[in-house]
Amino acid sequence: MDTGNPGPSSINELKSQLDLHKLSFKDFDSIVLTHLHTDHSGGVSEILKEVDLPVYVHENAEWTITGGINEFKRTNEFFYSFMEECGADPREHMAIRTYREENWGNVSYIRDKDTLPMAGISFEVLYVPGHSQTDIVLWDPKTGITFGGDLLIADFSVNPFVEPPPPGMENRPKSLLQYRHSLERVKNLPLGTIYPGHGEPFMNHIELIERRLAEQENRCFNIQECLLSGEKNVYELCGMVYPRLHGRMIFLGLSQIQGHLDLMETRNMVEGYNKGPVRYYKLVL
Q1: Given this model, what pLDDT does residue 100 score?
Q2: What are the extents of the domains in the chain?
């Protein structure tokens, strides 16, 4: 279940942990990815150099896995334009990404409500977009055992990252709106112990979801307060709400602010409009 970051240090740490349990990569029959973020999928190529395993990942990962350099360039162009639209300087704040050709061989693309057998248990696949466009949760309806990926983490709130639209589509997904829908969906399920992508296992997912939704409401209020003095772009709002974010970490704040502005627009709380390449927002009075 997930492979960690790319590079020898991460793989060696994974091997060390497996050694403690007298296991190796040869003892596994598949790799299951909860989503395609690098800290979860970055070790796939290194593992596949040692063992031939099928990889299971949500179907929305296909264009990234198979798109090659063209998809890499399309994604970079989207983030450059997004930074400009926010009012940020992409040359200062955009993460430097290096293209790496991947060949994962036997990849199976899974969908919502598919069944995935693991360790003698038939886990149901739940597609829960928001944090990324490839997020899944795996749960056993009989026991409630759940592998939650990055949908819910007990120690900190999850960032619904802005991502480009699928190839051939024009409008980006509204990540926070998706994330809230995903939270509401799993809130109604009888989940038991949740094993997250970061941190310790936990229970009482309903209480945690309600806390995360309340935090989002508080952020909307903070943004509303910032806009009382007049129109602002996403970068300006980010500086007010997250003053400690600088350099290439700015994207984390831009995603959060943009997501909450998307939510506020659906509630008719703010209005967005362009001035040249930059998009500004003001309160709807």
Answers
A1: 84
A2: 8-225
Q: What is the pLDDT of residues 26-48, one digit of tens each?
A: 999 999 999 999 999 999 999 99
Question: Would you say residue 50 has pLDDT above 90?
Answer: yes
Phi, psi of 102 (to 5 degrees): -115, 140
pLDDT band at 96 (very low <50, low <70, confident <90, very high): confident
Give residue 41's pLDDT.
95
Map tokens 């334009």 to a residue: 81
> Which residues are CB-neighbours of 112 under 8 A, at least 6 positions away?
125, 126, 127
pTM of this structure: 0.95
CATH architecture of the region 8-225: 4-Layer Sandwich (3.60)
Tell me which long-range contacts 244-253 makes (C-beta under 8 A, separation of at least 24).
247/92, 247/93, 248/93, 248/94, 248/95, 248/96, 250/88, 250/93, 251/79, 251/83, 251/93, 251/94, 251/95, 252/159
Q: How far is CA 128 from CA 137, 152, 178, in A?
A: 7, 11, 8
